[in-house]
Design a protein that fits this description.
Elements (H helix, E strand, L loop, with lengths): L1 H11 L9 H8 L7 H5 L28 E17 L2 E22 L7 E15 L2 E9 L5 H8 L20 H11 L2 H11 L3 E3 L9 E3 L6 E24 L3 E23 L9 E24 L4 E8 L3 E16 L2 E5 L5 E2 L3 E4 L3 E10 L3 E11 L4 E3 L4 H13 L2 E13 L2 E10 L12 E11 L3 E17 L8 E18 L1
Antiparallel strand pairs: 1-2, 1-22, 2-3, 3-7, 4-7, 5-6, 7-8, 8-9, 9-10, 9-11, 10-15, 11-12, 11-13, 11-14, 14-17, 15-16, 16-18, 18-19, 19-20, 20-21, 21-22
Helix pairs in contact: 1-5, 4-6, 5-6
């Protein structure tokens, strides 16, 4: 009777439950404005300078620094090189992509009323990539302790300590794999789907073969599991800023940005595991997971720049939280081998999950700059961002409340420092910069600090300018394979290298 009720309700339902985690909050909370070549060559230290289209995304008052209407477009080659360590296995990966990473324009309107202290105002629109998700890598090693079997066993025996009923993770008589997988997900959720995969592939067995059973054992046992893990992702996080700024007596500059954000993220992972343990019934497992994430969001920024003297400038800006609406789709595939034969569990079902909301943390940036006339400048930015303030909503939801508690416990306030300089010789400009960004995690061994430097050249042709930048940064991270059971991490030493070319011109 319970199975029949499950089927009826399941057929009427089109929603699924998927638990998000801390890594999702971090992924969509981090902003790495790729920006113009001038911006990148000075490591993004532009909060008190302005006069650059990407600077508008740091401090919205920056557009009021322009004396003439201006537009720019930037393209670049973005590379990531990884040294990867997984137990006794060492691999490397290298990924590069060519992208349009910045596009924007500012219209400057001069106030012809000379008696007014408001000398000009500007209207701008600027697009910048906030994050690039393109990545491909493979990790290989002999895991001495944990098998992928512990993943399915962990869900079956209950991630919260209460095991799942056998009739809640198994197919009805005459029901296909696709039907059962879809209905179990619709009625019970993601956890039951994972236990279903493990049961149908013979990775796990119930202690008692009854509907009421809630205890399970694994058919993968022993030690030394030969594992290969493949990861591939595509996509980006983009930001489109609509800006208004004004100048008061050409000494105080004020601005506001209204921003739209958009997420497109695709990820595919594949785990292959082999073992030759005598007490293991299952000798090999292939497990594939696919994820598609799309989303949109809104934020605003407020900023000001003050010319304390003709040479010395200070800036202050506030970035509001970004309020996202995010949708996700997943699909899975599982295959196992044993001496008795093989099992393939291919539901061929796309899980469409309910839209959820994410609020990222706000950020405050303080800036200083000193301009040496037409000879050059020095600039410094300091930003503070409390990642523990990220929240999945609604906060009244029990699942989201638990995740938000995990975010508060795992994440911390992160400080970032950016220093940049420019020296001009006639029409030629030489630039350089350094940046340091703290880890958003309390345990920075999981996700390390980022350090980087940058160099650049620019040439002013009068009506237009051409700029080039080279930047490089390093960060050590640990990537956890799964949230349950097989929770071992892959260690990364990552190097990010960008080469950016910008064409800017008066309009």
């Amino acid at each position: 009777m319970k199975k029949l009720l499950m089927l009826c309700i399941g057929l009427a339902s089109s929603t699924y439950i998927l638990a998000q985690d801390v890594t999702d909050a971090v992924r969509y909370s981090m902003d790495e404005i790729q920006g113009t070549a001038r911006f990148r060559s000075m490591s993004g230290a532009f909060g008190a300078l302005g006069g650059d289209m990407s600077a508008v995304n740091i401090n919205p008052a920056g557009s009021a620094i322009f004396n003439n209407s201006h537009a720019s477009v930037s393209i670049g080659v973005f590379s990531k090189n990884d040294d990867i360590n997984y137990f006794n296995g060492f691999t490397t990966s290298s990924n590069s992509n060519f992208d349009l990473n910045q596009l924007g324009a500012t219209l400057v309107f001069i106030n012809r009323n000379e008696s007014s202290p408001w000398k000009k105002f500007t209207l701008s629109a600027a697009y910048d990539r906030s994050a690039d998700f393109d990545d491909d890598w493979m990790a290989r090693g002999i895991n001495p302790n944990n098998s992928i079997g512990s993943y399915f066993l962990g869900y079956a025996n209950g991630v919260n300590g209460q095991g799942l009923r056998l009739d809640e993770i198994s197919a009805l008589p005459g029901e296909t794999i696709s039907q059962a997988y879809s209905e179990i997900g619709s009625f019970y959720g993601y956890e039951n789907q994972q236990a279903f995969l493990g049961y149908e592939s013979y990775i796990i067995d119930p202690v008692e073969d009854t509907d009421e059973n809630t205890a399970y054992t694994s058919n993968i046992n022993g030690t030394d599991f030969d594992q290969e893990y493949y990861y591939a992702s595509r996509g980006y996080n983009g930001k489109l800023a609509f800006n208004f700024a004004t100048s008061y007596e050409d000494k105080i500059f004020l601005g506001i940005n209204l921003n739209t954000h958009f997420i497109n993220y695709e990820r595919s992972t594949f785990l292959s595991e082999i073992n030759s343990n005598e007490n293991s019934t299952i000798t090999s497992v292939d497990f594939e997971n696919n994820l598609l994430t799309t989303g949109s969001g809104f934020s605003f920024q407020l900023g000001g720049i003050a010319k304390v003297t003709e040479e010395f400038r200070v800036g202050l800006s506030y970035n509001s939280p970004t309020w996202y609406r995010i949708s996700e789709e997943t699909s899975q595939y599982l295959a196992t081998d044993s001496p008795e034969g093989s099992a393939i569990v291919n539901p061929n079902v796309i899980n469409i999950f309910p839209e959820y909301r994410l609020q990222t943390p706000s950020k405050v940036t303080g800036s200083l700059a000193y301009v040496f006339g037409k000879q050059g400048l020095l600039s410094f930015d300091y930003s503070i961002k409390d990642y523990s303030g990220a929240k999945f909503r609604p906060t009244s939801d029990i699942v989201f409340s638990e995740i938000n508690n995990s975010i508060s416990n795992a994440l911390d306030t992160a400080n970032s420092y950016r220093v940049g300089g420019e020296y001009r010789y006639k029409q030629l400009s030489f630039r350089g910069g350094y940046r340091f960004e703290e880890s958003p995690y309390k345990n920075d061994s999981f996700y390390g600090d980022l350090t980087g430097y940058s160099l650049g050249l620019g040439y002013n042709f009068g009506s237009f300018n051409l700029d080039m930048a080279f930047s490089q940064a390093e960060r050590d991270t640990n990537y956890q394979l799964y949230n349950v059971g097989l929770t071992d991490s892959v260690e990364f030493q990552s190097k990010f290298t960008d080469v950016i070319l910008t064409l800017g011109f008066k309009i």
